Amino acid sequence: MKVKARIQCIIPSCSKKYNVKEMRTRCDCGNLLDIKYEGNFSKKLCEKFYDRRNPRGNIFNESGVWRFRELINFINVDSEDYDKYSKIFVSFDGAEGGTRPYEMKKVAKYLDMPPGNVFFQPEGLNPSGSFKDNGISTGLTHAKMLGVKEVICASTGNTSASLAMYAANEGIKAMIYVPKGKIAPGKLSQAFQFSADIFQVEGNFDDALQVVLEKG
After folding, report:
1. Domains of the chain in sequence order
2. Spans in the chain with pLDDT lower than 70
3. pTM reported for the whole predicted model
4. Which pLDDT score is estimated for 214?
């Protein structure tokens, strides 16, 4: 059975479904949306993912996100046709999600756990300095699929830096709403560096998010 993607409300009591190509920022009930998949993934994908550990010069095989592209192929593109998927997948030279785990033997010993059970994965080694790059790369891919020219988010730091960087790399305008005085200066400077429009909102993150939802 072929796997199909859809957009669905995150609230179980609603769970309303929409076409993945529909331009939507939230459900009719007012809540947020997520991508869901119908169908069964082939068990042979494990072999394919393992083989891609040798990227052979393909940046999308280097990416810790797009190496597993069959699992997040909401755009329904041929995942083996580089000429096709390279035009739509958003990646920062395959660097997102490429952080490696390090075994923490002393921590395991301190926790009285056997070796090989505690690992540390420094997500700060992602392009913008946080794990948010993983989600932003797929979010911007969806935006490209829909032909979006501007993207918007609320943030207190990491999301603003990641969205600004990936959007600039794709020639998409980024508008970022932050709670006034409640964002890390370093992250704010990253957003400015990539020419995002920054707006300060009185209140906290939830207040900034509400503004974004109203404008979206």
Report:
1. 41-215 (3.40.50.1100)
2. 1
3. 0.90
4. 87
